[in-house]
Amino acid sequence: MFLLFRSFIIFALSLLALLLLAQSPSAFGSPKLVLLVSVDQLSPGRLSVDMTGGLGRLMRQGRVYTNARLDHGLTNTCPGHVAISTGVNPGKAGIPGNSYIDHVTGQQRYCVDDLDDAHRVFGTELNRSPNSMTATALGDWLKANSPVSRVFSVGGKDRSAITMAGKNPDGVYWYERSVAKFTSSGYYGPLPDYVQAFNGDIFFVDGFAARYPKTWEHKAGSLRVDDYAGESGEDLRHSGHPVNTGELGERAARFYASPFLDLATTELAKRVVDEERLGQQGVTDLLAISYSSLDVVGHRYGPYSGESEDTLARIDTTIGELLAFLDERLGGDYVVALSSDHGVLPLPEWLVETGEMHCPVDGGRISIEKAILRLYWQLYVDFTAPFGDPRDLVGFSAAGGTVSATYAQQLGTTVEQVVDSMERYLEEQAYIEAVWTPAELEGSNDPVSRLYRNSFVPGKSPHFFIQLSETCLIYFAEGTSHGTVYDYDRRVPVIFYGAGVEPGVIVEAVHSIDIAPTLGQELGLDLPVDLDGRVLDLRNVYGN
Q1: Separation CA 455–CA 508 (nearest Å)
Q2: What's the rounded Cα separation, in Å, for the pair 74 and 313?
Q3: Are strands 365-367 and 473-475 parallel, antiparallel or unpaired?
Q4: What does the DSSP 8-state code read for residue 513?
Q5: Rounded to the nearest 5°, which phi and psi values hold at 65?
Q6: DSSP helix/strand/coil, 39
Q7: Is the previous residue joined to 31 through a cis bond, with omega within 30 degrees of 0?
Q8: How confident is the model over 49-83, as pLDDT tens digits?
Q9: How many Å apart are CA 305 and CA 55, to the nearest integer?
């Protein structure tokens, strides 16, 4: 009898706990707006509570995860943004990299391109849509739960704005250099009148960009001289960079490589809020904003340059203005999640100067032109001599090489033999840490293999991945890049802010794929069953 009674008590208490859990409110209930923000190429070490704008506000008043990383190996823009929005790793989302080679057609493909001309980018010959994505995103879950909710995305790049929005948003707008204005594609319907008014007839003459100066003036920066070895000489290596000057094509490219791109992105986002009445119709809406300037500037000048410091300071200011705008429009009833798609390798010249260079190649900078030329020579000698073209045998994209099975057969060889030859050659190079085939990835317990597996898409990913040695840079003679498995590329900020979110500094290890599941759970949405990310606790402060 006692055992039966005890079992009943345990059952009753368990049932009560489940009922209380089901009835307990989420951290932030049903906010008027969810603001999903990405700052391209933002490493968490560059953020500070002393910043005076919106980033500083989030650092002081938000829930800051200081041990956050990407959980995939190909650390580029398209996969980084899809991880934030979908809660799955890029491999599961169908996005192996910014570009890839289709194994069937042999064609180089862009991560958000589309063969359907109905999805033409207005004013261009390009087609853009999220059709390559095989996963749904936070905005899709929101609209499935509340069909009247609105989902919009604004960004400096097509691939960031599109992947942040998901499959079925109400509008997506990005800056397109080829037409020198913000635009969209037929996938999303016609371009609204207010976006066209924002652009004007000529963006830099009677459009919003007319207010920006002819040159970008900035301080030298706190860490090094303005004109520093290794920086790009395109549009000058020092303050006074030309922006709103020159022919239209020149202005379009210069604007893209300046902080003014992000300032315009914020202003267009504000217009979307007002024109679409986001957060003002009694349901939760979602606005995704992807800031792109820091990445373009970082590629040219490196993360410790005066240019990069100034760009980040302006992003801090513009996000502060955006939050103040939302305070006024929505009475503070909104939630923010901020992260980044990837970090970046500092300029090799800076790493040498600071004693942080680990690459076994002197200076750490390997010419991409010379590396590719030597590699194709090896392929020529091994397979295509005397009259064949090795470029037709192996193409390079998504951090590796893809072999043409058709051409290999014509040459009397196999994909596996070509891959074996490339693996032997590449692993003899000092700047290569390892070469990974899909079979090696599956059979390995190495943490790096897991990262590449999380980036792998059958039929799109290369036949072999190339893992560079730490701090080695295969690039051009100037500037820097990202894309590796190392922490300088994988470390990103993860910050939540808003009513019901408990502020604090959290040292728990998290990933960018945790953002969408966490927001979805707190909004009470039905989450997909196959998410890679997990739901984070936004209420308890622990581990600080």
Answers
A1: 23
A2: 28
A3: parallel
A4: G
A5: -95, 110
A6: strand
A7: no
A8: 999 999 999 999 999 999 999 999 999 999 999 99
A9: 19
Global pTM exceeds 0.85: yes
- Round the CA-based radius of gyration of the chain to a whole number and report it: 24
417 within 8 A of 425, measured Cβ to Cβ: no
DSSP state, residue 529: T
| Inter-residue contact 288 to 85 (CB < 8 Å) | yes
- 342: closest CA among 457, 512, 476, 495? 512
Alpha-carbon distance of 245 to 67, in angstroms, equals: 42
SS3 (DSSP) at 334: strand
CA distances from 290 to 259, 269, 319, 454, 509 (A): 13, 10, 11, 23, 24
Nearest to 40 by CA among 261, 369, 325, 235: 261
Please tell me whether residue 208 adopts helix, strand or coil conformation. Answer: helix
Structure tokens at 220: 């030298």
Backbone angles phi and psi of 414, in degrees to 5: -130, 165
Give burial (CB, 10 Å; 0-12/13-18/19+) of 218.
Answer: buried
pLDDT digits (tens, 9 = 90+) for 116-154: 999 999 999 999 999 999 999 999 999 999 999 999 999
- State how far the Cα of 297 lies from the Cα of 294, in Å rounded to an integer: 5
Whole-number Å distance between alpha carbons of 47 and 35: 19
CA distance 141 to 151: 11
What are 92's two structure tokens? Answer: 């599961």
178: tokens are 């080829």
Strands (E) across 129-219 are located at 151-155, 171-176, 181-183, 215-216
The pair of structure tokens assigned to 165 is 């929005």
List helix spans (H) across 242-394: 248-256, 260-275, 293-301, 306-330, 348-354, 368-379
The token duo for 73 is: 């190996």
Residue 510 β-bridge partners: 68
Candidates 28, 48, 190, 222; CA nearest to 119 is 190
Question: What angle separates helix 515-522 from helix 138-145, to the nearest 10 degrees?
Answer: 20
Find the helix or strand (DSSP H, E) in which 57 lies.
helix 54-61
- How does residue 27 score in pLDDT terms, banded at 50, 70 and 90? low
CA torsion angle for 269, 274, 276, 282 (degrees, to 10)? 120
- Given the structure tokens 């069909």, which residue do they identify? 147
Cα dihedral angle (178, 179, 183, 188), rounded to 10 degrees? -70
CB contact at 8 A, 46 and 455:
no
* Averaged pLDDT for residues 107-117: 97
Both tokens of residue 297?
A: 């500037």
**Backbone conformation region of residue 233, classed left if phi is above 0, alpha if psi is from -120 to 50, else beta:** alpha
